[in-house]
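The authors assume throughout that readers already know how a fold can be written as discrete tokens. The format is easy to grasp once an entry is in front of the reader. For illustration, here is how one protein appears when written out as sequence plus structure tokens:
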Amino acid sequence: MNSARDPRIAIVGAGLGGLTCARVLQQHGRSVAVFERETSADARPQGGTLDMHPDTGQAALRSAGLLDRFHALARPEGDEWRVLDFATGALLTQQVPSTDGGRPEIDRGQLRGLLLDSLTAGTVRWGRAVSGVTPLTDGTCRLLFDDGTAEDFDLVVGADGAWSRVRPALSHAAPAYTGVTFVETGFDHCDTRHPDLARLVGNGSMLAKGTGRSLVAQRNSNGHIRAYIALRAPQDWHVAAGIDLGDQRAVRTQLLRMFDGWDESLRYVLRNSDNGFVNRPLFVLPAPHTWQHVPGVTLLGDAAHLMPPVGLGANLAMLDGSDLAHALVTASGVGDAVRAYERIRLPRSIEAATGSAQGLDHLVPATAS
């Protein structure tokens, strides 16, 4: 086993939390390997836009020495919200960006690219899918790969998201369906191809909500608008409707039925999207999600506290990564570092999970307001 001054650290998952942890460790001269099942950084789209909060996501970026680079990419004007009446399309409320920059938006892909570019070449081992971990009696942990190989580390950090392969070493908890599904779609070159929608959305995000139905549309960079059609429905809503999710025309027709009575300016989102419809049921872990400390392994981000995507998860994952890295470079040993990190992670994740659940109820009301 390596000394406490030079522990062997593996991070499973090259998402925002894991990459933040790796960056901060490398800033302090520590070696780290990040194992990612995807074959490259651009193997799949990285999702929509994120607002970085000053006390979480931005604090983590400052800790990582990347805050200035973040601000060079971010869109402060994106911190605008327009709430519209679902039946008339009329503007109900408008929240303008704060004068101090508040919570600037950035595309998730841009933020991930910023973190990846900050790491030493070769830090991320692409195409290395993990099948599980085995804590060992000497306090280390064995990382098991899909190809049948294994490597031992002083610490394995599960930063591998909702369906974590690391989490079973610590917890039997499994994600549960929230009762809400997002159907995602998108629009390209909006200012020229979809000018009416561009005006409706404004510089940031647009929300319209009815009972059990909502529409959210968000500005991304490069003239793209990403939209989320939110449904309170069984997870197999499409089966009950008798449609195949692969049949995009049938999905569009069914969604238009489900949003009957909504203003036509909002139904434009359903009728005219450039991109296909992607079904995304929302899952959460129990709150609080706790575990007994196990030497050689811990969790961060969605692997530890999966919650609804209402603006807290990515921020909290990055702060987790930063805090764990700082604990590892300041504590007397790996075990002490992980215990210190786990002590501060739990209370804030409980608060965030509670807030996120309330946020989802506000976003997609179950009853008429």
